[in-house]
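Re: the 907-residue chain
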Amino acid sequence: MGIPFRTPLRASSRTPLRSPLRTRRIRLLFGSLCLVLLPVVATSGPGGLGPQAAYAAGVDASSEVTVSGAGDFADLKVTVGQTRNLVGQVVKISWTGGKPTVSDTAYSANYLQIMQCWGDEATGPAADQCQFGASSALGSAGNQAGAYTNTRQLNYGANLQDAEHEPLPPPTPSGISFAPFRTVGGDPVSPGNWNEFYDVNSTNEVPYARTNARGTGEVWFETQTAVEAPGLGCGTAVPGSQGAPTGRGCWLVIVPRGEKEVDGSPYTAQSSGQLQSSPLSPANWKQRLVVPLGFEPLGSYCPIGAEERGTIGSEMAAEAITRWQPALCQTGGKAIYGYAQVPDETARVKLLSGTPGLVFLGRPAPADPVRKPVYAPVALSGITIGFFIESQAGFEAPDEVKARNGVRLSSLRLTPRLVAKLLTESYQDGNSRFADSTAKNPVNLGHDPEFMHHNPDYAGLDFPGKLGDALVPQPLADTTRQLWEWVTRDPAAREFLDGTPDNTGAHGDASYAGMAVNPNYRGIALPVDTFPKSDPYCQPFPLDHPESPLCIQDKHPYATDMHAAARAASRGDTLARTSWDATATPPTYKKDPPQLAGSRAVLAVTDTATADRYGLVRAELLNAGGKFVAPEPAALLAAAKARKAGADGFSSPDPAAADPAAYPLTVLTYAATVPADLTEAEGKDYGAMLAYAAAQGQTPGVAAGSLPHGYAPLPQALRAQTRAAAQRVSTEAGKKPTPSPEPPAPSSPAPGGSGGTPSGTGGAAAAGGSGSAGTGTSGAGTSAAGAGSAAGGAPGPAPASPGAAVTTTGGAGTTGATGTSGAPAAQAVGSTPDWAVGAIRNVLLICLVVGALAAFAGPLLPRFLPGALSWLRSLRGAAGGAAVGLPADWATHKKPGPRDWSPPDQD
């Protein structure tokens, strides 16, 4: 007998023959090694734990850090509010002991310049490792600062030479020497003030931070991860000292600018009477203060190969879930809990789909006769109008008002009517100053007497072209409906929306401006789960580009979600696209840069946790008790206490509650699942997650596993409800309830009936009609979201979200005895949910493994293929029905257990 499937070996005159077994082992070894190293190759990058080493050397375990200046800045002390467990967020930077900035309206001398850098040395980064210079695309603070102060340029002409006399980088063809930018990955970078890795729309640099007359100041700085700043790589997962991955550290650099230039001359000696040089010039760079920043690891914080449990749902839970994820997968069963943010109606459809997973929502799913969800409260937060407004004195403002220029304002009070004005394009700056629909209305909040009545601190301020609207999220959401409910329940707001000017009517004030709602919104039916943009006005440009007028979606676009709205507001970014770019293909409006530092004014509809993450101040809203209340934890808890109990333990806000301490837009987010539709393993994992949410997940903090600021810890009664739900989910998973017997189908049409349900029950015939069995739902009644009625031709109850549930209304005399639900999943799904994405990801992983195995098997085909073909030919020529040389059960396939399907050896 010979060796099966072996091709003749060819002897080499230069190498001895290797045994087949040895060759096979070597190939398998290399193949396995490739599979093991593949994830490492895909995610590894340059190492370096400079900031982490700096932390390890320190003795102060607190996250707040204060550093002091030296020399001319010996009295300067800068405090960074948070330096550990950072994500993409905003941190407060404050200082004392500085000299007041020269000029109330410009930056001539005495200010700070702040930037984020990477670097592996424990002493801090070099100048070429810092993200700075892109703000120069806006000019030097509107030409109110020195020409090169916010650039990377290091040569300033013959009259200004750096006293350090370090060699300048090679000049560009135009003769300019720029400080190079070196990325964490060593990528090639174009010279200049901005490059392929950051520009004016993405940089987080603070080119000018003003010091007030008291020698103090503060700014809110955006810390960026490798997602927002790939050139810095902050937070990229690197091996930790205990084996678990840690986030790559970075640096915060503060360069104080005094009254001297790089050559030692006073700033007054410059022709502009201002400092001129870049903070990256060696003489300025020597004065820098550095603070190490510790980041949470991006992505790779859970065990490889752990079981994944998908969760989807409301954005109100996003901040909490993403903070809990790293801790959840390191405890209990160590399952990985994925999270996908989807519209609330999609979550409700998923809940009743038969494969519920775990969903998060603010309103319950419609009643279902078969599937009984379990609801568990997990997060208490609120909807808010977050704002970033810096004081901007009007031309005729008194000196004490001008002295506050650039200071961030910390108060804003809004009534439901003021919010209605902002959300209906009723201010000129919220629409267009050229639109006839709002031509008689105030230009923005700052010119509205009603706003000034409630916000006297804004007297003397002017915000040209700003504060006419708020950034709003585009997706359909229960939170949007709740906001509109608060607006429309207010008599003054409802009167305004119906067309009554604010100086007349039962709730008007004669001292107000007579502002009327934009006629395109007059009589709007509320509540709705979206923010309409209904004014059709487009500003024409007949000479430059007549075919492309400027319309509302360019001038006042939607944000992709509340997170995007909050981040944009924190950067002074309205997301507007109003600059015509004739060089684009095709020509189009390009995005506007953020507003200039010191003159920012942006509002955003967001949630309280995201507002806190991005350092937005949260407006005080007028509640039913007649008090202005901010969404502080005590106010959220007061509102939660006033909620009305509902079916299945799902409470709802009480519109009649008038507690003066309660915040009116408080949101209690629930987790929900159907235990009977889970496997036992899923039930245990989801139960563990709920148990965590009711315990460690309610401890406020910034570390992984804690409750982010902006949420209020659940009161004990709600935690007990969640613990009970966790127990039910764990113990009842996979246990199908005994179905109740179905009543016989009626032999004749009834004068009314029930609407459809997600399980497929249709409506009965309407009064006065007759019909035959069918698969549709019709009749004089309606069926919406699987729960409706058709009694005597009356419409059924409204769905949880208009537009998300499909309602079919038919004429009298028709019926569908076995109709389908009025809310098919295909109508409600707005984006691919996490459970579908997870399946696709697994398929891709399988394809990768199969492809790798195929690559390893390729070299073996020449050895085994001839023998395999010979064996197949012998089968073809065999007589009878039995397969030659195959196991005895080949024909019957009845033999249990594993079979040896290998062919016999061939000579």
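The two ends are 5 Å apart (CA to CA).
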